[in-house]
Records
---
Amino acid sequence: MKVRKAVIPVAGLGTRFLPASKAIPKEMLTIVDRPTIQYIVEEVVASGIEQIIFITSSGKSAIENHFDYDFALDHALTDKGKTRLAEEMNHISNLIDVVSVRQKKPMGLGHAIWMARDVVGNEPFAVLLGDDLVLSEQPCLKQMTNLFNEVQESVVAIQRVPAEETYQYGIVEGTPTSTRVHKIERMVEKPAPGTTRSDMAIIGRYILQPDIFDILGKTTPGHGGEIQLTDALLALANKRGMYAYEFEGTRFDAGDKMGYLKAIIAFALRHPDVCENFSDHIKEVAKTL
Ligand code: UTP
């Protein structure tokens, strides 16, 4: 089966980014000239997905509005003769079919994904975290769908992390099956230092078989009353197999201050409008450090 739908959970509180995220969703914070979430939606579109399901909450309507058609803005720009800008705005709203589902309380990532069960139905689907950015030649999700088309089982994207950082991630252990691909055997959320020899950390990109919904529906809330995704992923891996894929590219956790700043620098250095001047500026700044 083909992956046609992508779930993007954006209902979290964004506490690591307060006060910036108090009135503005962290997913709407700007990286050079567009919000973080737009890069993620563009990755989804470039990967051949047909529909996006945002899992939202109150206070996140700016995300839905960003991808909606703005009649007043379209007319105001057209009246002023700014047709190119009007076309650019309309392009954003025409990118892809979007559906929103409300998560009434931030009950964890597992719960957020479970909220998509009726819209996704009985087919494999992608999950992209709304604050995880990947800069790559080929879109990260496209790399993953290529693998999914071969193996027809769930795929999680992983990156190698230093041993002293494994406690911050969901870590997978497994055996290599081909270049960049591992069959998952074990999975542990934020392992205590020294309890795993693996350095393969799960990042915010998944392709999941729909069996995950039943598993999530039966998962009891864990730490902080939240329904965690990792336990359900392990159950799914045991039930029908799962692959870890070491994607080509660089991932940024744009929901975290340092990750966000690193993302701005990386994306600005590749942006055709500013890359040259920005690169000169960075070199100047570096001399003063
Ligand atoms: P994070 O833990 O990175 O986001 O969740 P958060 O909870 O918003 O941020 P902090 O930790 O308080 O700073 C990963 C993704 O899952 C979504 C978030 O919006 C984010 O995109 N999420 C998380 C939900 O949609 N619902 C939840 O209950 C929790």
Note: The chain has one domain: 5-249.
---
Amino acid sequence: MNVLAPYKRLTIKIGSALLVDKTGGLRSAWLADLAADIAALKAGGAEVVIVSSGAIALGRGLLGLSALALTLEQSQAAASAGQIALSQAWAQALGHHHIVTGQILITPNITEERRYYINARTTIATLLGLGAIPIINENDSVATAEIRYGDNDRLSARVATMIEADCLVLLSDIDGLYSAPPAKDPDARHLAEVRVITPAIEAMAGGAASHLSRGGMTTKVEAGKIATLAGTAMIIAKGTEHHPLRALTEGGRHTLFHPAQSRAQARKRWIMGTLAVAGTLTVDAGAARALQTGKSLLPIGVTRVSGEFERGDAIAVLNTDGAEIARGLAGLDSDEARLVMGKRSDAVLELLGTGHRAALIHRDNMVLVGAKEDSHELG
Ligand code: GLU
């Protein structure tokens, strides 16, 4: 059975131990085969985002630091040198299939602060729309100990939920979750599926990391919690052999973590529940109708802006009676919103400059109030 068949937008995380051999060399033949698998998924209509580790592992070799336990400074320098090699390797491997790659380096503020979040999301969506494949890693050279993910398992889960991927695939050196660490316990049982991440499941994950990766099963199960709560399925599969994604589509062994709720529900809860409203926009009847049909909120339909808010803050949309009809993340600051309200989009771009987006709330960042939970599938 092809376990990847249901998914349209995949985030695939590649661990260092797959890309880099024990001597610090790139496993280029393996990468070439993986690139062929990715090209096949893309040809089949899926959008693919890669989260690739391996910068530090490659950079060590390049800088002659192979035999050492690295200091923080050395690993940040290794990441800096290795990231160039890593990007080059990806650009070449996917370029062979006429696929353009775009590099995005992330620190936690980018996935956690709404201003950056909206930008990163838009850039990734734009790259995907242009047929390119974003290659993402943590910006290890500048991230400090206090503000870094430190492992690409959790980072990839945040990326997957940020871009509303329907599935996150973690390719590592183990083919899934076992009831106990299989290296230590001969009776360890492989789990094909996890419906809910219970404390018992978390307890199964206790175990050591491999020779290169930072995370072990613990960070993978944590990634599973982030992903499944946001409505993204997660698959752990072994990636060490050639053509690991093809193997998955042909029934290769894995553990599937089912999403805990739909993405639309998760997003709605996030926008409606966890964010305080910083301001309101009152809209005319035409704009109110346009929102009901799933359109973005454009300045022309806005008659009043209240409150002080920044781009990315949650704001409420009111109809002419003052009733809340939608809530979403502001595409402009309140000052800019006041400047452009009631104006046509071409005039808006003239006022703000073409680098700006014309929507006051993009439909992907908006939830209609009173709509049925799943009626506004986003993405
Ligand atoms: N970002 C790190 C690197 O590229 C890898 C982190 C991890 O292995 O999870 O070397």
Note: Confidence is low (pLDDT under 50) at residues 207-214, 372-379.
